[in-house]
Design a protein that fits this description.
heterodimer; A: Glutaredoxin; 8 helices; about 20% strand; B: Immunoglobulin-like; twelve-stranded mixed sheet; globular
Chain lengths: ~200, ~160
C-alpha cells in the first residue's frame, strides 16, 4: 500500500513537471507573450526626438492617437522598405476617420546617416501619415531602450562591405492613445492584421 | 606562320568558350528594383536565376547607376535583421530557381548616382563564373515592391542579345 502511494505520488509529480515545462515552452513560443505581464510595462517609454519636418516629438506625442512605431534606417534597401510599405498599406486600408486617429513613426537607429532632411526624403516615399524620427546618438539610444529595440553598427571592415551596415530588430509596435503598448507585429506582417488591431483598440477591445 | 597558328588557336579557344557558355545557359528573369528617395545612397535589385543544366555561380554585378554593387543577403535572427555580403558568390543549380528577393538575397546598389524613379529602368550586368557577363534591364517599381509587376516578362537569356563576351 505504502509502495503504491509512493509510485502514484511520483507519477503525479512527473506529470506536473512535464505539464509545467510544456506550459513554459508554449508561453515562450506564444506570439501574445509580449502582450502579457512584464511585456506590457516594458515596451514604450520616454524619448525625445525630432521629426522629418524639424518638430520635436516625445512620448507625449503618442497621446490622443493610436501609433505604429518602427525602428530602422533609410540606408536599408530591403527590410525597412518592406515593413514601411506594409504600414503604408495598413494605413491605406483605414477609413478617413480611422486614419485621422492613427499615426506612424519610423525611428532611425542610424543617426550618422539619417539627418532630418534625409528622413523627410525617405518617409515621403511611403505615406504622408508616417513621420520619420531622428536625433543625436544619445537620443536614439534612449528611444531604442524604451522600446527594447536592438541595433548595432557593423563597420565596413567587419561586414566585408564598402560601407557600414546596421543590424536592427524589425518589429512594429502598436501603442494605444495613452501611449501604452498593445501589441508587436513581426517583419512581413499582413497589413490586414494591423488594421484589425487598430480597429480593436479603437473599439475598446 | 607562328603568328597565324597562334591566332588560330586563340580563335578556337574563343569558340570553345562560346560553346561552353551556350551549354550551361543561365537565364535571368523577373528583375525589379524599388524606387529610392531623392537623396538615397542605397538601393537593391531583385531577380530570379535559372540554369538549364549543370551549375554556375553569380560572382558579382555592376551597374552604371551605382558606384559599387555588392551581393548581399539578409539573415533574420530572433527578429533582428542582419544584412551581410554573400561570400563566394551565389550558386545557380539546374532544377531549382535561385531567387533574389526582398528579405533574402539581393544585389545591393551602393552610392547611387541618381535616385531610382518608379517607371524608369536601368542596366545591370551580372558576372557568372561560367556564363560570363549577362546584361539585364531592371525596371524600377514602387518603394516597397515585393515582386515584379504582373504581365511583364523581362526574361533575359544568356547567349542572346544580352550576352556580352
Amino acid at each position: 500500500m505504502r509502495r503504491r502511494t509512493f509510485w502514484t505520488g511520483l507519477a503525479v509529480l512527473a506529470t506536473a513537471a512535464l505539464l509545467g515545462s510544456v506550459v513554459l515552452i508554449a508561453d515562450r513560443l506564444s506570439p501574445q507573450r509580449a502582450e502579457q505581464g512584464q511585456g506590457r510595462a516594458a515596451i514604450g517609454g520616454p524619448f525625445s526626438l525630432t521629426d522629418h519636418t524639424g518638430q520635436a516629438v516625445t512620448q507625449d506625442s503618442l497621446k490622443g492617437k493610436l501609433s505604429l512605431v518602427y525602428f530602422g534606417y533609410s540606408f536599408c534597401p530591403d527590410i525597412c522598405p518592406t515593413d514601411l510599405q506594409l504600414i503604408a498599406q495598413a494605413l491605406d486600408q483605414l477609413s478617413p476617420e480611422e486614419l485621422a486617429d492613427t499615426q506612424a513613426f519610423f525611428v532611425s537607429i542610424d543617426p550618422e546617416r539619417d539627418t532630418v532632411a534625409q528622413m523627410a526624403d525617405y518617409v515621403a516615399l511611403f505615406h504622408p501619415s508616417i513621420r520619420g524620427l531622428t536625433g543625436t546618438p544619445d537620443q536614439i539610444a534612449e528611444a531604442a531602450k524604451s522600446y527594447r529595440a536592438y541595433y548595432k553598427k557593423v563597420s565596413a571592415a567587419e561586414a566585408g562591405t564598402s560601407d557600414y551596415l546596421m543590424d536592427h530588430s524589425a518589429f512594429i509596435y502598436l501603442m494605444n492613445r495613452e501611449g501604452d503598448f498593445v501589441r508587436v507585429f513581426g517583419h512581413g506582417v499582413n497589413p490586414g492584421e494591423m488594421v484589425e488591431w487598430v480597429r480593436r483598440v479603437r473599439a475598446g477591445q | 606562320m607562328r603568328m597565324f597558328t597562334r591566332s588560330l588557336l586563340i580563335s578556337a579557344a574563343a569558340g570553345l568558350l562560346l560553346v561552353g557558355a551556350a551549354q550551361a545557359e543561365v537565364s535571368v528573369s523577373n528583375p525589379f528594383s524599388r524606387a529610392s528617395a531623392p537623396q538615397a545612397k542605397a538601393g537593391a535589385a531583385f531577380l530570379t536565376l535559372n540554369i538549364d543544366a549543370g551549375a554556375d555561380k553569380l560572382l558579382s554585378a555592376s551597374s552604371p547607376v551605382a558606384e559599387r554593387t555588392e551581393l548581399h543577403t539578409h539573415l533574420m535572427e530572433g527578429g533582428i535583421a542582419k544584412m551581410r555580403p554573400v561570400e563566394g558568390g551565389i550558386p545557380v543549380n539546374a532544377g531549382t530557381p535561385t531567387e533574389l528577393k526582398p528579405g533574402g538575397l539581393h544585389i545591393m546598389l551602393m552610392g547611387l548616382k541618381a535616385p531610382l524613379k518608379q517607371g524608369d529602368s536601368f542596366p545591370l550586368t551580372l558576372k557568372f563564373e561560367k556564363a560570363g557577363d549577362v546584361s539585364v534591364t531592371v525596371p524600377v517599381q514602387g518603394p516597397g515592391a515585393m515582386a515584379p509587376m504582373q504581365g511583364h516578362d523581362h526574361t533575359n537569356h544568356g547567349g542572346h542579345a544580352g550576352h556580352q563576351h
